Structure formats: C-alpha cells, structure tokens
Amino acid sequence: MQQEHGAGPRVGVIMGSRSDWDTLRHASDTLTALGIAHECRVVSAHRTPDLLFEYAQQAAGRGIEVIIAGAGGAAHLPGMTAAKTRLPVLGVPVQSRALQGVDSLLSIVQMPRGIPVGTLAIGEAGAVNAALLAAAILALHDVDLAARLDDYRARQTAAVLADSLEP
Ligand code: RP5
C-alpha cells in the first residue's frame, strides 16, 4: 500500500559524538542519493541522556520511520534508543581507536531479548548498509522509493560487471 508522507525527515541519523560523523556521513550520503529526507544529530547516551530520551520518545510522532544510531566504544546509544521507541533502530558500530570497533560491535549486537537493534558492520560499510536497509524498510510502502532502490542496485551490479582488471 502506498502511504502518504510529509516533507519532514523520515529517517533519523543520530550519533554519540561529532567524532562519529566521519562514519555516519556515509549513511547520510546514501540516504541523499536515494532521495530520502533525513536529519543528522549528535545525541549521546552518556553525555546527553535526557536528550536521548526526548529524541527517542518524540521521533515517531514527528514522522520519523527508522532510526540509524551510530556509536563507538561502550556504544549504548542504539540500544537505549530502541528501549524508548517502537521504531526500527539500526545500529552502526563506529571503529574505535582502542579496540578497532569490536567493543562497539559487541555492545550494540548483544541486546537482551525483547528490545532488538538491527546491527550492521563496523564502520563505513555498516553506515552505507544501514541507509540501504532503512531504504528497504521504507520502500515496503513507497513504490517510488522502491524503484529508486532497484535502480541503485542495478547500477551497482552494472558497475561491477563493467569493471576490468586489465591495466
Ligand atoms: C561514544 O564515544 C561516541 O559514539 C564516540 O564513538 C566515542 C568517542 O567520543 P569522543 O570522545 O570522540 O567524543 O560516545
């Protein structure tokens, strides 16, 4: 069923620190390439916990349909966001300096039963794939976006097939 949506953001991209932007901007760029209205904000589970609760509790009412949450280290942002909203939350583990993002990955993926976070790969690949997964979710009730997503994938396939290893 095709659903009407307003001009406001449909995807919320949040991250624990300004330093996560180098990773999460790849999610934003991919959403832009697919023509998906979105917003990007720093919301820290540890440094701005009240803002996190406010953001998560108000997101659905503001028309947000999917939240992409990226964080590094003891990465509680995706899980705590998921705890405060029924919207699907996609977690992107940011590559940390100390443990190369394994700490981020494990703290995002190992959610207790009952509150899921869809966890993507560490770093840039995870950020891009979070955007593509958000697009796939929105495309379930948006035929125009479904066509744009099919086109994105077809162009990716064509680029691989046209590639050559010849010097
Ligand atoms: C986390 O701490 C953030 O998600 C970030 O990945 C990490 C380090 O933050 P900064 O010290 O760079 O602000 O909350």
UniProtKB/TrEMBL annotation:
Q: Which SMART domains match?
A: AIRC
**Catalyzed reactions:** 5-carboxyamino-1-(5-phospho-D-ribosyl)imidazole + H(+) = 5-amino-1-(5-phospho-D-ribosyl)imidazole-4-carboxylate
User: Residues that bind substrate, according to the entry?
Assistant: S17, D20, R47
Keyword line: Isomerase, Purine biosynthesis
GO annotation terms (biological process): 'de novo' IMP biosynthetic process
UniProt pathway = Purine metabolism; IMP biosynthesis via de novo pathway; 5-amino-1-(5-phospho-D-ribosyl)imidazole-4-carboxylate from 5-amino-1-(5-phospho-D-ribosyl)imidazole (N5-CAIR route): step 2/2
A Pfam family found in this protein is AIRC
EC number of this enzyme? 5.4.99.18
A molecular function (GO) held by this record is: 5-(carboxyamino)imidazole ribonucleotide mutase activity
Q: Which InterPro entries match?
A: PurE_ClassI, PurE_dom, PurE_prokaryotes
The reply on keyword Isomerase is yes
Q: Where in the numbering of this chain does the PurE domain appear?
A: 9-160
Per the similarity annotation, which family is this? Belongs to the AIR carboxylase family. Class I subfamily.
So what does this one do? Catalyzes the conversion of N5-carboxyaminoimidazole ribonucleotide (N5-CAIR) to 4-carboxy-5-aminoimidazole ribonucleotide (CAIR).
Q: What is this protein called?
A: N5-carboxyaminoimidazole ribonucleotide mutase
Species this protein is from = Immundisolibacter cernigliae
